[in-house]
Specification:
The chain is mainly β. Helix content is 12%, strand content 42%. The strands form nine sheets. The chain has a 22-stranded antiparallel barrel, surrounded by four helices. Strands 1-4-5-2-3 form a five-stranded mixed β-sheet. It has a four-stranded antiparallel β-sheet with strand order 14-13-21-20.
Length: 1021
């Protein structure tokens, strides 16, 4: 990695030249333009305020920290009622998690959450505050805050700070801080309502809010209450043409490329192509039946559908895929693009001045969100059906009974007894889905006051609690399913019945390919085999064949409960040294304080998941889980100083140094020290240079440390499949390692193909030996407020954030890649297992994710923030044509690298998905009498669809146009009119050009909502 200090030096030199150049032309510019109002002087009353990044009370024009501020008006003009979705358009937060990101079965507890991710360094490294104080998390075991719980109607502004803020606020903010500042002393009534719909149907939302506030006792007290409700409607895959069944463009192996089938690759033919009507080669909603491995003529080996009709093969596309035919559509396993979400909140904030020097405050809130989404059905790839099952179609049984068929299998090479094998996608058993209910409670209260005009204090406490109930429905109990499909004729009445009902010792064979492992030794864990078992025979031959009674017996609802609690006690003294001493440039400002924080998290799985964990195999399709309960506390002391060195001198109107220090003692991780140091230099009234350097930490959270082993599912590419051997950083090393691993389990590496996209069951668990990760941040920039352009403010800031010993849970794809791309032996190979039997021996059938202090991150770039309030009258325009406001927030990403460990080469993620090199958000507002028109444009450039290694080593991997996702170009417009005093109606549209998501990515680079319109009302009394 390039040294951040080298980049800082070059940036500082460039900035110095900029200072010289600007000051050289300043006299000429000032001679030609009318002078702007002078900056505040000693005789000017200046309100001291606190902004994000410091607790020092300083004038807002002298901050050294680079802060982007977004006010309530900007939020309102965006037409976005979800504050998390709004903030995702900010370049620094482009990789934040939105509603569409949460509709993922690998982490269903994330559904319906909006989590902020600053600088693409992870939601766990972004500290979210409300009025400068911490907020309880929305997800068990982590610190990430759901912005859906923050009352949007009370937001005065949102401030985004880049860089480590641990010395000021404590751990977690290694990438920066997002601080929600709420309205104070609100008086009156504010009613807002909005209805949004999409041009293509589906989705859309409705929202309403009411804020009421009242000052009393001659303004000494204020009480403000807010009530909000919003409903985001579900957007299904079937609501969009490009995601409907059979209409999705899916990237598959090219059937015309010899390399697809393990032969030498033809570089003149693309390895992968876009196709529709892509199907699995060996499974179907009707059931796909293997009757004869010895004489089968179909390329898939499947002879019949479950209803007895012949199984039709499509065009083979490598691995487990084909184009056309009888198999299940590959895109039939998704249902929700964006889950439904209901949000409601009640907030009450109060303040009262007991004396001129003592006031109390309270912030109380209750928020509830409800969300739900549907996922995919259960499926089986090797379901064994014994030959005496009465539901087997006669022609199927006859074919299986031919010589060489599976019924006639005396040596037991394929099945353990006479019968057939079935692969089935069980849509008719019900699609598994999730309903999630979250409740958030928060109370912040305290006293603030002053000892005299120069020294003040604050004492505060925060209590937060979040409760999560997650219900997974249509969860299949595997042993019940296997018992219900093991059907025979009851000789007593000639009726179909479960074999285990007649013979309690009869154990079904289950899925022989162990997609859902079945342990015969524990059969009967969820019911008692025998006459009173309740088992209902289930017919799997043909879609729609199972009876409702059978479905009800094999399915259940699994409920997981979580509770998160947070307690924060904080006290500090702030002020300046006026009463003691004053430097020639002014008094020294200071803060000194202490804080105690306690975090608790308790995740309680459903009893059936706990039973599965005890038995060490997944009883149901939600797998196995163990309870995760943990807590930690931290005791801290902190201090800040701001020391003015020079003032009102030529070339030094202001030169001030600023620093902070915090010592933290964690009950889990021990002691840590964090600091920051910075300064500002104002060589002229309208130009300021600023720079900061900071050390921050992130202590391991409860999940990092204490998470019990949990089942998870993920789909990933097998690096040892022949079509993937050339995609590693070192293809030769990958091929060598894969050959050794596959040969050791009796698999021929030259012919090994495993490009199935099915989800693989694995596990995640915590690591109690973790230590805090450390981050060093450097920022340097300038602020320009030229006198010759009244109302113009430009800030340009360079940032560099380096994280060492990062706590990282590697993705399953990273684990398997590292296993074969690094020298042997390595620890990654210990985290995966491969099957040694079945029709596809060698396939990866399990993985384990454990966090470790292994990784390093480095990101660097330049932020641009331009604001211009333009009054044409200042330029001599006599007619009233209104006023204009311009805002531009942009970013150039210089570097985003991730190093897996100290010996691995860094990977360059700049330009990858969610990490564009160039991005910006432009707002132009025209205000004319009672009319307000706002235009917004959000942009980022095209990003890579594949890794740099793939693009470099496999130029024929895809068509050149398919290596990149298209750029994001979203245009928004709002028109607002004040029909009566303080009563506004408005209408607008988002994504007016109706840009669509890119192929194979249904939510990127734009939302699948597409072009949307809205109307709204805002009334103030």
């Amino acid at each position: 990695m390039e040294s951040p200090r080298t980049k800082l030096l070059s940036t500082a030199i460039a900035a110095s030249f900029t200072v010289i150049l600007i000051n050289s032309v300043s006299s000429l510019a000032l001679a030609q333009e009318a002078a702007a109002p002078p900056p505040p002087t000693e005789d000017t009353a200046v309100e001291a305020i606190v902004v994000t990044g410091t607790r020092l009370r300083l004038p807002d024009y002298v901050q050294a920290n680079p802060v982007v501020s977004l006010d309530a008006e900007t939020i309102a003009l965006s037409g976005t009622t979800n504050i998390g979705e709004f903030l995702k358009d900010t370049p620094a937060l482009v990789s934040s998690q939105d509603l569409a990101d949460g509709a993922d079965t690998s982490s269903p507890d994330q559904a319906g959450l909006n989590l902020l991710n600053l600088r693409n360094l992870g939601v766990n490294r972004t500290l979210v505050l409300v009025n400068g104080r911490r907020h309880v998390s929305a997800s068990p075991g982590i610190a990430a805050v759901d912005t859906n719980t923050i009352p949007a109607s009370l937001i005065e502004r949102v401030e985004v700070l880049t860089g480590g803020a641990s010395a000021v606020y404590g751990a977690d903010g290694v990438s920066g801080v997002v601080n929600f500042i709420l309205k104070k002393d609100f008086e009156g009534l504010d009613l807002s309502a909005q209805h949004t719909w999409t041009d293509d149907g589906g989705g859309g939302d409705d929202s309403v809010s009411l804020v009421a506030g009242k000052n009393f006792n001659d303004g000494r007290g204020n009480l403000t209450a807010a009530v909000e409700y919003s409903r985001q409607k579900r957007l299904k895959f079937s609501d969009r043409d490009y995601t409907r069944l059979g209409q999705r463009d899916i990237l598959i192996s090219n059937p015309d490329d010899p390399g697809t089938f393990g032969d030498p690759d033809d570089p003149a033919i693309f390895d992968n192509i876009l196709a529709r009507n892509v199907r699995y080669i060996d499974s179907s909603p009707d059931g796909s039946i293997y009757t004869n491995f010895g004489t089968a003529t179909t390329q898939s080996g499947v002879s019949f559908l479950g209803n007895g009709q012949p199984f039709i093969d499509g065009e083979y596309a490598g691995g487990f895929f084909m184009l056309g035919g009888s198999g299940s559509l590959l895109d039939s396993f998704n249902d929700d693009l964006i889950p439904a979400l209901e949000r409601g909140s009640v907030s009450v904030n109060g303040r009262y001045e007991f004396t001129d020097r003592l006031a109390g405050f309270v912030e109380a809130k209750f928020a509830q969100t409800k969300t739900g989404f549907t996922a995919q059905p259960s499926y089986d790839y090797g379901l064994f059906i014994a030959a005496d099952n009465p539901y087997i179609p006669a022609n199927v049984l006859a074919d299986a009974s031919e010589p060489g068929g599976l019924v006639d299998d005396p040596d037991g090479n394929f099945i353990p007894a006479p019968g057939v094998l079935m692969a089935r996608d069980n849509f008719d058993l019900g699609t598994q889905g999730y309903d999630i209910d979250r409740k958030t409670y928060r109370l912040a209260a305290g006293l603030e006051g002053s000892f005299n005009d120069n020294i003040s204090f604050e004492l505060s406490g925060v209590y937060g609690r979040a409760e999560l109930d997650q219900h997974a429905y249509n969860v299949r109990i595997n042993e019940r399913f296997f018992a219900a499909t093991d059907v025979v004729i009851n000789p007593a009445n000639g009726q179909a019945t479960c074999r285990s009902t007649l013979d309690p010792t009869a154990v079904p064979y289950g899925d022989l390919f162990a997609q859902f492992p079945f342990d015969p030794a524990t059969f009967g864990s969820t019911f008692t085999p025998g006459a009173n078992s309740g088992c209902v025979p289930l017919n799997v031959f043909g879609a729609g064949s199972p009876s409702q009674a059978a479905i009800d017996w094999v399915n259940t609802t699994a409920t997981e409960k979580s509770k998160i609690e947070q307690i924060v006690l904080n006290g500090f003294v702030s002020g300046d040294t006026t009463d003691f001493f004053t430097l020639p440039a002014g008094p020294v400002a200071f803060v000194a304080g202490a804080e105690y924080r306690e975090e608790k998290s308790d995740f309680q799985p459903d009893p059936i998941e706990l039973l599965a964990d005890q038995l060490e195999y997944p009883i149901t399709t939600v797998g196995r889980a163990s309870r995760t309960k943990g807590k930690f506390d931290v005791k801290e002391v902190f201090a800040e100083l701001s020391v003015p060195l020079l003032k009102d001198l030529p070339w030094a109107k202001d030169l001030t140094l600023q620093g902070a220090f915090r010592y933290s003692d964690y009950s889990t991780s021990g002691g840590t020290s964090t600091w920051n140091f910075g300064g500002r230099w104002r060589p002229s009234e309208w130009f300021m240079l600023r720079a900061t350097s900071a050390r921050a930490v992130r202590a391991p959270n409860i999940n990092n440390l204490f998470q019990g082993r949990q089942q998870t599912f993920d789909g990933f590419a097998d690096p040892c499949s022949v079509e993937n051997l050339g995609l590693g950083e070192n293809p030769a090393l990958r091929a060598q390692n894969c050959a050794a691993a596959l040969t050791a389990i009796g698999v021929d590496p030259a012919n090994f193909i495993n490009n199935s996209s099915e989800s693989i069951g694995g596990f995640i668990q915590g690591n109690p030996d973790l230590k805090p990760e450390k981050a060093d941040t450097v920022t340097v920039g300038f602020v320009l407020t030229p006198n010759f352009a009244n109302g113009l403010q430009i800030s340009v800031d360079y940032y560099d954030i380096e994280i060492r010993d990062a706590i990282q849970s590697f993705t399953p794809q990273t684990i398997v890649n590292n296993c074969y791309d690094l020298s042997q032996p390595n620890t990654f190979c210990d985290l995966i297992t491969r099957s040694t039997s079945g029709t596809n021996p060698g396939r990866i059938n399990s993985f384990l994710q454990i966090p470790g202090n292994l990784a390093n991150y480095l990101t660097a770039g330049i932020d641009l923030n331009v604001r211009y309030n333009l009054d044409p009258a200042d330029f001599g325009v006599e007619h009233d044509i209104g006023k204009f406001r311009f805002s531009l927030v942009g970013n150039w990403l210089q570097e985003l690298t991730f190093q897996q460990n100290e010996t691995a080469a860094p990977t360059n993620d700049r330009g990858a998905e969610d990490a564009p090199e160039w991005q910006g958000s432009l707002d132009v507002t025209w205000l004319y009498k009672k009319l307000t028109v706002n235009y917004g444009f959000n942009y980022f450039n095209q990003t890579r669809r594949f890794s740099l290694a793939t693009m470099r080593n496999e130029p024929d991997y895809v068509d050149a146009d398919q290596f990149y996702y298209k750029a994001r170009q979203v245009h928004d417009l709002q028109v607002r009119y004040e029909v009566f005093d303080d009563i506004n109606v408005y209408a607008g549209g988002t994504n007016l050009t109706d840009q669509k998501p890119d192929f194979s990515e249904y939510t990127y680079p734009v939302s699948p909502l597409g072009r949307s319109f809205y109307v709204g009302l805002n009334a103030r009394f």
